[in-house]
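RETRY 2/3 - previous attempt timed out on the joint model. Re-submitting the same 519-residue input unchanged.
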Amino acid sequence: MSIKGKAYLAGVFEHPTRKADTQSLAQLHAESALGALADAGLTKDDVDGYFCAGDAPGLGGLSMADYMGLKLRHIDTTETGGSSYVIHVGHAAEAIAAGKCDVALITLAGRPRAEGMATGTAPRNYGAAAPDVAFEYPYGPTVVNQYAMAAMRHMHEFGTTSAQLAWIKVAASQHAQHNPRALLREVVTVEDVVNSPIIADPLHRLDCCVITDGGGAIVVTRPEVAKRLNRPLVKVLGAGEAVKHQRGGKIDLTHTGAVWSGPAAFAEAGVTPADVKYVSIYDSFTITVLITLEDLGFCAKGQGGKLVADGNLIAGVGRLPFNTDGGGLCNNHPANRGGLTKVVEAVRQLRGEAHPKVQVKSCDVALAHGTGGSLATRHGSATLIMGRE
Amino acid sequence: MSPQERPIPSPPVNPETKPFWDAAAAGKLLVKKCSACGERHHYPRAICPFCGSERTEWTGASGRGTVYSYSVFRRAPIPYAIAYVTLDEGPTMMTNLVDCDLDAIRIGQAVRVVFKPTEDGPPVPMFTRA
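RETRY 2/3 succeeded.
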């Protein structure tokens, strides 16, 4: 069964805060939910399906349904790190197509800044029972030095350069200057990026995303519901998900799970990379974007450096506009999980509601891709292709 | 300070992996090999991740390998090199590169295992220039 055209993205919301000193985590989820429901023209009483991931407090979906007063007949708490919410859109479409719910709500929120979390630079320990922890944690794997190993290998195999990676941040900053809510609005140059301090070889400070509090939400509905609402119609065309891991020690850091999730999504949508007018690509680091674009088929493996260079990702300048809100590199990375905001900006583009300076003309097909976990060990990849009706 | 002075967290040991850590305490590197499909894997499991067989056995490894990738974490209070090393026996494992010039590390370098003490657990395998 295909989900093509069977579910619509009726409401989206990006929480305006970037530092939530005065709000609780549950409150941020609920404020985001209300924002997306208001965007759609629905209320919480219309919701009968709820989706959340590991950032939700307490018992996740149970705690948030209790807090928000939701009456549910479908719940899904799939957890694949920052890509969870892109997967949730696909799962919501599946549930709607199967008649399991009519209005699906997806929420994300977090307050790593208010809590002073060392997001990317302290090793994360998922507990002694994690089967990998004894064989990784003693070596000090942080988010940034793991992604850095993927970058180092890509440079070794394909000759990718720091300057090419820097173009990704440059493009994001060109877009962020037009976003009044972006954490970093200053336009930067390739020289600024490569001259910023090295955090973990070969990644510089400006190769890394921002740390922000906040959240977001998405409302997915069946077509009949969406068509009653007074909003531009954006529908799901195809979705793909995949898990990439270490394969028992047969490690290949040159690709992500997008090599599987991408083709699945394109096949379901019945489109090719050439049909895509806008891409939201999870940009935890510049290298994440480069490898993902290769894996999704926007260029051949190893040619990502050439694809992203010379402004090719800048709206109105290059051939593949990306992350026109400034992305995680400049705008927002709520809860250290960037998948949800990727979908939000893609919906803005398809509706024609992006900032006029970055709005892509005749944007009828857009792609959002999430990468959650670590490029170097295990991650969930999710590709979502959406169309304007 | 030299990189190996970074305090090394102790690996949690469980019944499934205890032989690996007992061998590490004796200065030996073990790798799991599947008797059914013949594949070696790392990190070690009771059940082969390739064929699903429970007939996995501990085998000795030479402790020699090559650097697959690495990154020197410059921002850390004591910079250190995380790496993936591909063992001569096949599997690639996460590790640290130690007792060497961090600026001279390159992908493809030959390395050999050394065991480094942890805070209050068994020593862990790390690698240095061969």
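The longest helix of chain B spans residues 18-25. Closing ticket.
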